[in-house]
UniProtKB/TrEMBL annotation, chains A, B:
PROSITE patterns: HTH_LUXR_2, RESPONSE_REGULATORY. This is LuxR family two component transcriptional regulator. CDD domains: LuxR_C_like (cd06170), REC_DesR-like (cd19930). Residues 5-121 form the Response regulatory domain. Pfam families: GerE, Response_reg.
DNA sequence: GGAGCCCCGTGACGTCTGTCATGGGCAGGT
DNA sequence: ACCTGCCCATGACAGACGTCACGGGGCTCC
């Protein structure tokens, strides 16, 4: 078996370096590139053409899901393994739709990561079964495009007038979208709707 | 120089194992214990008596700050280095007050961690200068005990009546505390007050 | 003893919020 | 052509929210 060349993307330098140290312990794995931002992933993939790219979801510049799609388009030979802190159902779904080969949460045992990488490199899919079930149960996002935008803008706690100004909408329209989102999420407050949508991974982009 | 014995506490197993791998690369460092929960820290410290304990702040069971105080009380020979994802001013302040010897955010370069551990073990203090300045500027929390509790309870987006039921208070009293907290944080909404207070690290406990 | 702060509660006021009805415009599908 | 769904907007209404004034009780510190 030849050695596998890896790319590592995580915004936290300490975690990134630690993961590199962990993977370098394996004789058949070699970390050839590290990046801290989502928009640096594609250029690094183009330059190094790694066998597997390990991508975090929460990154500045570009989120890991969108970066996954970009990697698949730029270099189909590179498999993507998404490594994230939050096991949100929507993240998993959208990662797989974007062409990821694996999805691992950051509280899986450390010794399993190398095997996950090898399996992904071999063309297999790696997904936590419990998380997969949860993803199926939660289903796809019921929120419309605008509702998602409004909820995203409502995260920092602004008033309806603020959201209207940011989104160039009428204040009444904002409240209508919010009301609809509240109904779909089963919440009773806009803040609760934001929380529930975020927990389901419906607020990406 | 003798080898330093370390304890590692982080709720995410992958990060914990990766940090262990990173630190084991140093010949003079030895990870002798790993725990995933805050309440397991003290028992592990009592059993292994490490030279340095690396503690995350966000942990189930017991937060890293409180765990720091417990470690200092149980084994004063063990120095504490807090390693956290969020560089919130209140975290730093309260960690140092609790007896921590160092405070490092997770996006510091990986190669600096080992040096930070050694410096802490030598009795020095390790603090990011920029973060220290920010902590001084932000000052201590202006929120009263009740205001903090109310803001904490308001995080999941419940109505004032919900908070009143949880905290066994009158609904009007809850709104009074919220109003006061909103004024002190400079916010215009309860949600914004929650966000600002959380960013400052005022919502621990 | 008073002064100060925090706690709890009440009542009232204006504003904001969440909901509904209703309208129009624009895309997609049978 | 029709229906359906999403978008935007308006107006109206009950309820929740944020603010203030005002009480009372407790505590500490001078």
């Amino acid at each position: 078996m030849t050695t596998l060349r890896l790319l590592l993307a995580d915004d936290q330098a300490l975690v990134r370096g630690a993961l590199a140290a962990l993977l370098q312990l394996e004789p058949d794995l070699d970390v050839v590139a590290e990046v801290a931002r989502g928009d640096e992933v594609v250029v690094a993939v183009r330059e190094h053409r790694p066998d597997v790219a390990l991508l975090d979801v929460e990154m500045p510049g570009l989120d890991g899901i969108t970066a996954t799609a970009a990697v698949r388009a730029a270099c189909p030979a590179t498999r993507v393994l998404v490594v994230t802190t939050f096991g949100r159902p929507g993240y998993l779904r959208r990662a797989m739709e974007a062409g990821a080969s694996g999805f691992v949460v950051k509280d899986t045992p450390a010794r399993e990561l190398a095997d996950a990488v090898r399996r992904v490199a071999a063309g297999l899919r790696v997904v936590d079964p419990a998380l997969a079930a949860e993803s199926l149960a939660a289903g796809t996002s019921p929120l419309t495009e605008r509702e998602t935008q409004v909820l995203r803008a409502a995260r920092d706690g602004g008033t309806a007038a603020d959201l209207a100004a940011v989104l160039h909408l009428s204040e009444g329209t904002v409240r209508n979208h919010l009301s609809s989102a509240i109904g779909k999420t089963g919440a009773r407050t806009r803040a609760e709707a934001v929380r529930l949508a975020e927990q389901n991974g419906w607020l990406l982009g």
